[in-house]
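Q: Structure tokens for this one, please.
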Amino acid sequence: MRSWQTLALRLAKAPAVLVRVDQVEGSGPREVGAWMAVTPSDLVGTIGGGQLEFDATARARAALAAGRVLEPRQRFALGPSLGQCCGGVVWLTFEWLDASAIAGLGERLGNQQGWRPVVLFGGGHVGHAIVALLARLPARVHWIDSREGVFPEPLPDNVRAEQSEPVQGAVGSLAPGARVLIMSFSHAEDLDILAACLRRQRVANDLASIGLIGSKSKWATFRHRLEARGFTEEELSRVICPIGVPGIQGKQPEMVALAVVAQVMQG
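A: Here is the predicted structure, written as tokens:
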């Protein structure tokens, strides 16, 4: 469930004050548009934590107690007086929300403009761990597997699942600019998916990256097989294998997922 959906459930029971980052001068803990909703008992979302969030929460709760927002836009200097050393200035807006605001929350707060498109081939343990991380990040995930019954229900709001047989047949419908991760249940499928992605790059050159899970020895074998299919050294040099940022040790699915998602969100 996304944060705006959680907020909708809260608003059905009680009002809240929506706090949004409206302007940042210099360094700040969150970007413009980041938000949190303050209810009498809890928070939904975050504007960066620390003293800034603590003070904003106190002011929002004061508005809830008063029954209205008195100052809709407020300035916070992130210096010694606030106990934070970011050094910038953050302007926050405060808005009263009640049940009448539920209908428009998805459009206002669930906007996915600028989110990173990620395509994940493979519904195994690592695939599930990757989706669990991406579900909480600004990413639109297209999750593909040739098998039935591998996807959990319900799926996160930012994840779309597709069962495709043959699995490489889905490559033609991938979103332009997608970061592709290949980790199916078999090396044969991995090879076919990778070849299809490379053919798409040859024609359209519209995938942001292609990553393949595996060892250096797996990639050496794949290189020979792809060369036999007519792919050039330049084309193969664009494949990332092994995937994941270096330095994260461990082969548990969650550790591998952490390294892979960190790499996907770079750049």
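A few notes: The mean pLDDT is 92. The first helix runs from residue 3 to 11.
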